[in-house]
Structure formats: C-alpha cells, structure tokens
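User:
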Amino acid sequence: MSKNKSIEEYLNQYNHVKGLTYIVTGANCGLGYSVCKHLLKLGGHVVMACRSLEKAKKAKIRLLELTPDAKISIEQYDQADFKSIDKFVLQIKNKYIDFNGLVLNAGIYHPKKGLKTKDGFPITIGTNYLGVYYLLKHLMDLGIWNEEIKRRIVFVGSLSCSKINHSQIEEILTSKRSYPIKEYAQSKTLLGSLAYELTKHQSDILIIPKRIKILFMHPGVTSTNIVGSKDSSYPHWFSKLAKRVLNIFVHSPDKAALGIIELLFIKEVDEDKILVPKGLFNITGYPINKNYSSNLKMLGPSLIKISQKIISETNY
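Assistant: Predicted structure:
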C-alpha cells in the first residue's frame, strides 16, 4: 500500500461486496461505525448490533446521509448480558442465517469501579471476552455454523496485551479485584488467545468448521469514543481532552477500520497471521500482516475448557 494512497482508493480494491451481509457489533460509534461506513459504501448489507437502539438509529441516519441507498438493519445486542445475546442469536437464525461476515468489535475500556455484567462477571472481562465466547458458543449450539456458507469472523483486539499463565485464567474470569487498565489488557489477551486457538479448528467444545475463517486484528491507537462512554471512570474533562489529543497524534477510525475490511475481503487470507498498523510500534498506519505473539499462543485448549466451565456454572 502506497503511503499516498487514500482510504477511498484502498477501499476500491474490493468490488465483490454487493448483496453480501455483514454483522458488526458495537456499530454505532468509533471503529464499528467506520467499518459500517466502509461496508455500505462498497454495497454490503450491514447489520448494526448495538446495546443502545437509540444511538444505533441516530448512527443509521448519519450513514444513510453518506450512502442514501444503503441497506442497514439494526438489532439490539448487549455483550454484557447473556440473555441479550440469546435473543440476538435467534434474530440471526431467523433473519440473517446467510450472513457472510461477523465483526467482533464491541468492547468496554476503563469502566467505573465495581460494575458487573448482568450475569455477575467483572464488567471488562465479562464484556470483552466472556460475551464474545458466549456468542460464538450459542451460534454453534443453534446450528448457525452448519450452513454451507464460507464466512469470516474478525476479532478486534488491542495493542494492550499481558502475559497470562494457565493457572490465572479462572481467577481473571471471575475476580472482582483488578485495575481497569490491567483488566482491559487481560481481556484483550484472552480474546486474542481464543482467536488463535480457534484458527486450529480442533476444539471439541467450540466447534467452528474450517470453511469459516477465524481472523484477528488490532487497530493500533485511534481516536474513538471508548474513553468517553457513559460507563467510563474517566472524568468528562479528561475524556474530551484525550479525544482532542488522539485526533492530533493517531490515525482516524476510518483508517484503523481498513484492517477489518481487508480481513473480510482479501481473496487469500492467512489464519496464522494477524493484521496490525504498519507504523512505529504498530500504533498507526495501513494494515500489514504480523505473526501472533507468543503470549497469545500459550493458553491453548485450557482457555476454552475453563471458559465453558465458568459459563456452564452461571445461573442466568
């Protein structure tokens, strides 16, 4: 990709999207909104999966102003609530069974102290990791993967990572005591570890056929609204300042979203690689391939086994 090539020129590489359906979680703002904007411009049908229907409807209006003939659907989806995920999966089965791609973008960062998911898990771990695990498992249980459709599932990770040992998994998933930034890094590490394990297509618990590509990316650092959500523990003045600073020094969500677009549409895709920005320390830039880091490879089947055990023991 030439340094001088624009986002529009980058998108023009893909001309086979019209009529295809893509589900994007956390679609009403930030990175998810930019993914929707790109998909609609390319002619795709976008299913916006959002916690707030009001915000989703406002985002849909903005998207239609950009692409008036766009096909947009909205579904309620709260990744911190297993019952909400259950209802969402039923909507997929009934209305979007032939979807072509799933973008796992929804997440939370630095929430207020003491918040929990509807099912009693630590809010960051429960939303960013367990909610995704539960979604994929429920899609499997309802037979969504049985359809003979080649699909792509894109996990959206983070530049933030931490080293996690097998012995720590259960404690991380259930402990209520952690620092917000540390918990965020742990949640994204577990998410990347889950993606890596699923690329092997060998799990007997979370079975995803080989025709479905499991792909992982991180967007570097971008000026999204993640620090300014209503659940954030940051004061309002800090959130506004942080966004202004980010707008100056990092790339836009529109540019960061190109990694997701590439994973959805590039003809030959390698499940053994991840996509990251090519700039210094992978903070900004157009996407390039990179090997999975060792800390995302080390948890193996035990991560899926422990995740399933914890969810199975939950009364919801």
